[in-house]
Each structure stands twice: as C-alpha cells, then as structure tokens.
Amino acid sequence: MDRRSFLATGASGIAAVTFAPHLAFAAAATDRRFLFVIQRGAADGLAILAPTGDPGFAGLRPQLGAEAANGTKLDAMFTLHPALKQVAAMTAAKQALLVHAVASPYRDRSHFDGQNVLETGGALPYRMRDGWMNRLVRTMPDNPQAIAFAPTVPPALRGSARVASYAPSNLPAAGEDLMIRVGDLYANDAQLGPLWNEALQARTKAGDLATGRGAVAAGALAARMMKGPGGARIGMVETDGWDTHTAQRGRLNAQLTGLDAVLAAFRDGLGEDWNNTLVLVATEFGRTARENGTGGTDHGTGSTAFLLGGAVAGGKVVADWPGLAPTALYEARDLKPTINLDALIATALGQHFGQDPARMAQMLFPDTGSAPLRQKLVLS
C-alpha cells in the first residue's frame, strides 16, 4: 500500500460541488453502503487469483507462479494469493466474490487512459466528463453523502452531485484557537461558510484516526466516516503502487498485505453496517500472462475484481475462463477478458440498491452498451 494514497489535506481540504437534479429512479435502499477501492497501476490478476488448475500457468510463470503454493486453494482452478488472508476468510464466510478475466472496455495499455475509462465509465478515454460514481450518487434520493478518502476528488466521483474528499494531513494539527478564528472569518460568507462547517464535521468524525498511518488506519478511517445513520453512503479509497515491472514477488506481497489490512479494518470498523455494505476492488487493466526477465510482468489486459461485504452472495469465483493456451491469449500475450467490468459494476450496484441492473447500466455506463450479468452477485 503506497502511503501517497493517503497524503495530506487539512480540514479545509473537503471539496464539494453543487447539487444536481435527481434522475427518475425508484427510491434506493439508502441504508446500504458502497465503497470502491481502486488499484492504480494495473494489478496482476494472474498472481492475485492464480489459475493453478490451468495447464499453461506454470510454463508462463516459472518463478512468479511459485508464490501460489502457499495460497488458499478456492476450487480446482483458482488459488488466492497467500497475502490475502482476510479476503480468504471473507470468501470462506461467503462475504467475498472473486471475479476473473474481467476488464473495462479499454484495450490499450496506458495507465492514464485506462484509469480514465475505469473511472468515467466511457467506452473510450476522455469521452465522459463526469465519473460513474457521481452518476450513481445522482440516482439516489435524499442527497446521500459521498466521500473520497484522497487529497482531491478522483475522476470516478467528479460531476454535478455533491462530493467531499478527506485525507489525513502530514502537517501539525491546527490549534483550537486558529480553528475558531478561521470559522469566525468564514461565518458570514455564503459560499465558504457552509464548506468550512462541513470540513469541521468531517474532521470531528475522523477523530484520532486521521492522524494514523498505514493500511489499518486507512480502512478504519473509511469505516468511521461511513458508519451509522449519519455516515457517507458512497466512498472511494485510492491505492497505488501496483505497476510491478520488476521484483514483483516482494512488491506485490507488500501491496496485497496492505490491501488485505484496509479491507479487514473497514469490515471491523463498520460493525453491523458491514451487513449492508458492498465493496468493489478493481484496477485499470491486468498484466502479461508471461513473466518478464526482471522478475515482474508488463502491461496487459484481463485482470481480477473483488466484490466483498456482508451484502455479497459470496464464497466463490465467478469466471468464464478463457484459458492460457497460446491461441487463447489476447494479442498472443495477455489474459483475454470475458467479463465486462462495467456490466459487473452495474449488476452488483443494481442488486445492492434495489434497482433494475439494466437501467443501472444505462445510467452509469451510457457510452458502453454493456448488458448486465445474469448472476446473483448481491443478496436482496
């Protein structure tokens, strides 16, 4: 887990934009929560959820594939990375659904373009101006609070719906006297006054956790900000450092250990609210099927996505497995995607918030035309 994902803004780093008119949806189940954890850098799905039952895997990964020997075997085909101990426990408890050979519509290998497609939900880079998570907020009644645990609002949450951002600060905490003086300064300002009050509320809610460091503190902070009747209903956590061209075994182990800790701390911090929560973990694209000569992998296509939470119909792997034979690889080098990430997201969110998944797909991803999946992903 790269600590840059949680760098500083102070209390006044809360960002907000104006409200937008609501779309004509039925009332969503707003006691339910959704958190998106983005893996920036192209996470290696073939290492995260190794297809150890595929006859081509060992030959493509003679060094990197050895890590799977210590992992959690989920079925005859797939083995979960050993660093994901809490995810393995969630899977055993039927609170995690692991999806393989998944990708957004993007088929090139630029991080910037791939992340833009992942976050805006467009069919091509930079074709959509707002993010699919902001569009999700606009489908829900009562102006639910949405928050990014990041220094600024990420593209996935940008748009006309009101969104906040919060990140722990590396700077010394402001004294109470200074906070009062700034509050007095902004008190009669129609624009800055409400924003300052909102920032103070977020600062108070974060409490001592905002000064913590590391993955556990990040997950616990997200839980604290999303817990209870007054908590945010929509949230996003940024992680980076997933671009493992060299020395992948050690680096990926550290990344996954951090991710596992974030997810476990978020689960534990939510308490009973975990039962009404859906978490999505996804990346912009995967990595090459064959390991490279520097102990790593290069930019690829298909990868993995996780759905986790007490609301998930979990305990299994969902995959239309394409195989790793030379003729089965995408462009003779990558895992071929067989599940559309936008379809997965729309289906899961439609089921989670009590909406028609086909209509959810139209509203969140109007540019892609993907049909929802038929699987039951989330419990009613």
TrEMBL record:
Keywords: Signal. Pfam families: DUF1501 (PF07394). Residues 1-26 form the signal peptide. PROSITE patterns: TAT. InterPro entries: DUF1501, TAT_signal. It comes from the Bacteria. This is Uncharacterized protein (DUF1501 family). It comes from Sphingomonas kaistensis. The lineage of its organism: Bacteria, Pseudomonadati, Pseudomonadota, Alphaproteobacteria, Sphingomonadales.
